[in-house]
Design brief:
Elements lengths: L2 E4 L4 E5 L4 E5 L5 E6 L5 E4 L3 E6 L4 E6 L4 E6 L6 E4 L3 E5 L10 E6 L5 E6 L4 E6 L3 E6 L2 E6 L4 E6 L9 E7 L2 E6 L4 E6 L4
Antiparallel strand pairs: 1-2, 2-3, 3-4, 5-6, 6-7, 7-8, 9-10, 10-11, 11-12, 13-14, 14-15, 15-16, 17-18, 18-19
Length: 193
C-alpha cells in the first residue's frame, strides 16, 4: 500500500501495484474494493474518494462503493493529493516525466482548476489551508499563498546525502512530516500572527 485516507468511519488504502483501492472499517474488516489505474495517493471525505491517477491524467472521484462519479483533468507529473473543505491540491514531481513540475489547486465540487504555479523538481507533497499552501521541498517546509509567493520557510534537519522526508499532511494547525530515515513522524505547529 502507498496511499491512505481516513473518514469518520472508514479507512481507504491505495494498493498501488494491485491497482486497487480497498476500504476498511476501524476494526480492519474489508468493506469493499475497486479497480483503479496506477496511483500512489488518495484523499477521502464523508461522500467521496479522490484518487490521483497520473497515468490516466485524471483525479478520479468515486463514491465510497467505488462507482466513478466524476473526474478532474490532471497530468502525469503530479503524484500527491491533499484537500481542505473546498479545494483539492495535486503536487509532486517525477524525474521521468517531461512536464514541468507544478502545484494544481482545484475546486473540490466543480473540479475546475482554480490556480496553478510552478515548483522545483524536489517537491514531494503538499497540503492546503484556507489561504495557504504548504509543501515539502527536500528537507524544507515552505508556506506560500495561492499564487506561489513564499510566506515562510522552515528547514528540517537534513541527512547526509539522502532525502529524509517524503510526505506532508496537515490537520488544523498541526503539520505532520514523515521521516523515513528516522522512522518517525515529525509534528510542527503553525502559529498564525
Amino acid at each position: 500500500p502507498k496511499g491512505i485516507a481516513v473518514t469518520s468511519n472508514k479507512i481507504f488504502v491505495a494498493y498501488t501495484y494491485d491497482y486497487q483501492v480497498r476500504s476498511f472499517d476501524y476494526d480492519g474488516n474489508l468493506l469493499s474494493q475497486f479497480p483503479v489505474s496506477w496511483t500512489t495517493d488518495l484523499e477521502a471525505d464523508e461522500n467521496f474518494i479522490y484518487v490521483l491517477e497520473p497515468l490516466a491524467n485524471y483525479i478520479q472521484v468515486y463514491d465510497h462503493l467505488g462507482v466513478l462519479v466524476k473526474q478532474f483533468e490532471a497530468h502525469r507529473n503530479v503524484h500527491y493529493i491533499n484537500s481542505n473543505q473546498k479545494n483539492l491540491i495535486a503536487s509532486g514531481a517525477h524525474p521521468s516525466v517531461n512536464i514541468p513540475p507544478e502545484i494544481l489547486i482545484y475546486d473540490k465540487n466543480s473540479g475546475m482548476l482554480q490556480q496553478r504555479f510552478p515548483v522545483s523538481g524536489n517537491v514531494i507533497g503538499s497540503a492546503i489551508t484556507e489561504n495557504n499552501v504548504l509543501f515539502l521541498e527536500l528537507n524544507t517546509v515552505k508556506i506560500v499563498d495561492f499564487d506561489g509567493s513564499i510566506r515562510y520557510e522552515y528547514s528540517l534537519e537534513s541527512g547526509i546525502d539522502d532525502i529524509l522526508h517524503s510526505q506532508i499532511e496537515m490537520n488544523d494547525n498541526i503539520v505532520y512530516v514523515n521521516d523515513l530515515q528516522g522512522h518517525s513522524i515529525k509534528t510542527l505547529k503553525i502559529i498564525y500572527e
